[in-house]
Amino acid sequence: MRWILLVLVTVGVTVPLDRLGVPSAALFAALLVGIVLAIARWAPTRVPRFAGLAAQGVLGVYIGTMVHSDALTALGPHWPVVLGVGVITLLLSVGAGALLGMHRDVSALTGALALVAGGASGLVAIARELGGDDRVVAVVQYLRVAVITASMPVVVTLVYHAERSSRAAASAPQSHIAPWYLSVMMIVVLVFAGSVVGRLARLPGSGLLGPMALTIVAELSGWSFGLAVPVLLVSVSYMLIGWQAGVAFTRESLRAIQRLLPAALGLIVLLNVATAGLGVALAKIAGVSMLDGYLATSPGGIYAVLATAVETDSNVTFIVATQVLRVLLMLFAAPLLARGFVRLTYRRASTEASSEPIAVADARPAASTSS
Predict the structure, then answer these.
(1) Buried b (16+ CB within 10 A) or exposed e, 278-287
(2) What is the pTM of this model?
């Protein structure tokens, strides 16, 4: 009955959010509904692990299908600059995450994952596996996406004085898309094979990154055969990922996150301003407009970015390529970053533990002899 309630309420919240254009509406609704039902103690205790891993794999394939060779070639000779901007964005977000990690309610690793500027749904999916608190990561990541999505129309209008195109956006010519049943078969193979390869390669977050890597290889090599992830399957995966974090909430954890939100909001705003500065630099170096530079370096809200680019007659191909490269960089770098954090923490703990064993060891024999 708890699962039925969770599913029905989540679907009921997802539909209006989707019509309002909320990014990843199913994930946001599942997170919100999961939190409310968990606090009311009407939610299931947890999402089965196999379901979470399957959702990660589907999401990995879905992100991988965004990579197209024609979009990446649009970067031309400017790809080193775009890659450099992505690396600087990663460093800025990690630095902001380290500052967030100074808060008493969050660890440094969780803070870093919460503010990594890209692939919000992917990071939420693998946060727990990497050793972070997926509840904090989910709330802060979607606060970041919400702030960016809400502020983008204002910034585009008031700062860049862009106007919506009077013509309707021409739809891009559709390439061959495989039938849904063939796509589902390919997804199953990619998820299973990608997870196995990721584990054999000891890739952090292998359930997400393994299928993503195989899908990217298939897309760039021309062996994807028109693979397209069905919308319903994407929505179900989003819901599972949102539930995974949402049903784990308690009243104590909710109060801790409430204390964390002002600091997180301030760091998100600073990160947005810093990346807007990177957009100015990219525009001057790559020879694109200031608006193109801003949209290309926006640290999140990729779907809102693309919609805005189409409506304002911006350089859509360049913006798509830059945004996809940023998301891939963030998703592949974040697990490696998490592994580094874990090793550093382990070394510090080992050093601190090895500095005081003598007094403890001396005390024990004394107690045993006196007895």
Answers:
(1) bbeebbeebe
(2) 0.74
